Amino acid sequence: MKTVSKLENLFAVINETAELIAKECQLTYIEAVAETGENMFQGAILQEDMSEVTIKNIKRKYESIDINSFEKEEIRKAYQLAILKGLKDGAHPNHQMTPDTIGLFLGYLVSKFIDGKKELSILDPAVGTGNLLTTILNYLSTVEEITSYGVDVDDLLIKLAYIQANLQEHPIQFYNQDSLERLLIDPVDVTICDLPVGYYPNDVEASNYELKADEGHSYSHHLFIEQSMKHTKEDGYLFFIVPNSLFETNEAPKLNQYIKKVAIIQGFIQLPLSLFKDERHGKSILILQKNGEESKRPKQALLAKLPKFSNKEAMNSIMKQIDEWFKENK
Ligand SMILES: C[S@@+](CC[C@H](N)C(=O)[O-])C[C@H]1O[C@@H](n2cnc3c(N)ncnc32)[C@H](O)[C@@H]1O
After folding, report:
1. For the chain, which domains are there?
2. DSSP codes, 142-178
3. 317 pLDDT exceeds 70?
4. How far apart (Å, rounded) are the C-alpha atoms in residues 75 and 175?
5. Which residue of 6, 222, 226, 327 has the lowest C-beta tally within 10 Å?
6. What are residue 298's phi and psi, to 5 degrees?
7. Confidence category of residue 91, pLDDT binned at 50, 70, 90
8. 149 bridge partner residues
9. Where does the YtxK-like N-terminal helical domain lie (predicted)?
10. How far apart are CA 227 and CA 132, in angstroms?
11. How confident is the model at residue 125 (pLDDT cuts 50, 70, 90)?
12. Given ligand 1 and candidates 179, 180, 275, which is best to mutate, with the most ligand atoms within 8 Å of its CB?
């Protein structure tokens, strides 16, 4: 018989209490996931107007686990499962959480580029559910002091992010706003972002950007790259999850020129196509270093096409090549 793991237990508590809260408070499942997370963090049942029976039932479920006994990664993963379940129904592709296969690989890349730094500031200007940012923060556990910032325009997603951060004890500063408007965040060492792809509807705001389109709406992912550059320190690194076709559209020459002027392309790594439902939505990781006194052009940018993450042999061989690249270029 299969034994129920600690993580499955935690997921069951989040899932079952969210279902009860959703039903009694007439919320969607995903809204109730946020509510139950807040309850678990506060150690209290905060929803009013629930029946005594339901309150007792929920309380019993919370008491069956000790949230403080869980590792940060266990909490993140259990929460990730509940969010995935909630986002499944009808979530827009731009509202999808970054899966941890990508997050872990990005965590590995960030740790290689920052190379033993003990203090770090990090920004995710499209933080969404916080899954990508917290996966990376958990990966960087040897960095002694991390200051982190997350911004998102969607109030439900950012609520899920701040609850995840609380439960995992990451003191992230959150801003619920449009990241392309004025951001009151000082430049950071590292910016990471799974870019929202598509058109940005606010032409007035877009007109403040070099990468605005000559005609019609601008690409929000291009504006996000420019805004991220502004909020990254000189010599700092930027890691973007971008469409494979980033450098192939009719707006691409302008983007290319802009990037060449302000930064150095350190790498472009194509993620396995099997991660995406539709091959046309395949993504890559673009790694940039903002120009500065110490920034150095690599002999050759890190270019790779990742195999399926489950293909251990092929993955080991790629990781070896990446390690070699670091030895030669960093
Ligand atoms: C691909 S998702 C990022 C997912 C996130 N990395 C995670 O792990 O949940 C893109 C995010 O960009 C946000 N977004 C889109 N346009 C935005 C804007 N103008 N300002 C701030 N956030 C925006 C969406 O709400 C969405 O959460």
Report:
1. 6-88 (1.10.150.470), 100-329 (3.40.50.150)
2. T-SEEEEEEEES-HHHHHHHHHHHHHTT--EEEEES-
3. yes
4. 23
5. 327
6. -70, 155
7. low
8. 123, 173
9. 8-87
10. 19
11. very high
12. 179
d(CA 209, CA 218): 10
* The residue type at 311: N
Lining ligand 1 with CB less than 6 A are: 94-98, 126, 128-129, 131-132, 151-154, 157, 178-180, 194, 196, 220
Q: Which residues of 9-45 are buried (b: 16+ CB within 10 A; e: fewer)?
A: ebbbbbbebbebbbebeebebbbbbbbbbbbbbeeeb
| Res 295: pLDDT | 94
Tell me what the pLDDT averaged over the chain comes to.
Answer: 94
Distance (angstroms) between ligand 1 centre and the Cα of 291 equals 26
What does the alpha-carbon distance between residue 20 and residue 50 come to, in Å, rounded to a whole number?
9
* Residue recorded with tokens 């940039």: 288
pTM: 0.96
pLDDT of residue 279: 83
**96 confidence band (pLDDT: 50, 70, 90):** confident
